[in-house]
Amino acid sequence: MKLQRAIDRYLGAALTIVLWPLKLFSRKIQHKEAVFVKLWAIGESVLTLPALRALHDRGWTITVLCTKRNASVYQQPFIKEVLLLRPTTLLKLQKFSVAIDGEPYMNLSALFTRWMGKHTIGFSHGTRARLYNQTVQYKDMQHVVHTYGDLMAPLQVELHTETLIPLPGIKRKKLKVIGLAPGVAESGKSRVWPATKWAVLADSFIQQGNKVCFYGNQADVVMVENIRTLMKQKAQSMAGKTSLTEFFSHVTQCKAFVACDTGTMHIAAAQGVPTVGLFGPNTPVRFAPYGPANASVYKPKYPKPCINVHLGKIDCPHTNHMENIQPKDVLAALRRIA
Known about the structure:
By secondary structure, the protein is of the alpha/beta class. It folds into two domains: 2-155, Rossmann fold, CATH 3.40.50.2000; 177-337, Rossmann fold (3-Layer(aba) Sandwich). It contains eleven helices and twelve strands. It has helices spanning 2-19, 42-57, 87-92, 107-116, 144-151, 195-207, 221-230, 244-250, 263-270, 284-287, 327-337, and strands at residues 33-37, 61-66, 81-84, 96-101, 117-123, 134-136, 177-181, 211-214, 236-237, 256-260, 275-279, 295-298. Strand 8, helix 7 (221-230) and strand 9 (236-237) form a beta-alpha-beta unit. The protein is globular.
């Protein structure tokens, strides 16, 4: 990821400056065929779905260009085709009537959008904005679900929704299980909540008569096992044992879910599980688990968010952002929704 960001920052930025005159050759929108570019971030990908369905409901045919990492999110009935980013894919593609850049800051995504679309739409900040025919302001004091809705506004599409779009998977019977996801993305270590507090929280749930199951990917296994050794009670772990698509199904059996500010949190919310998200360096104003059945715990260490994804600030060197949150805060938040 560090190499990809370096390439994007230097080579990508230079190319956006050199190639901006290409937008002068754009054409009027003739067909309702759009390609949406979203290359990274599973959580943000989940948050794009309401806007894409609204676009589909206005008669548009939608293709998504993404990577293997987030492709499973876009296996939706309102999306015609999911294309994986490969050199051969870009070379074979014919231009779409409209290309929409769903990345909030990447230069390379703007270049792909310019290459694929006769008419292009993207956010208005950064040098890359000069590649788009139409730009939309990234409003950083609203939820990202609505920010992606704004991205559809140039196509006369309005978004009105209070819930996320369910992800593909078999719904399981609800059990008396509370799911916990202590892991965070490799690019967001400042979002980690201390293991000792996860252990206290898990013990509290079990003492209340619930079962607890930890979830996460292979990179989270060591963290989860550390938490389990700190616990007084016994908890299950599915960390590293499910694929992303399998997790889409597994999480539906949970009666509630607690997670840090990660894609796992958004997946649980999308699957209709009452979800509590824990926030410190980022703000739930933008990234709370979306929907009225969910809640956030936000006790920031500093007066302003340190993470501003749309500006390329995806992590913070400080590691004490989450220490103000106590297990009792999470228990109280969950009582409000479950």
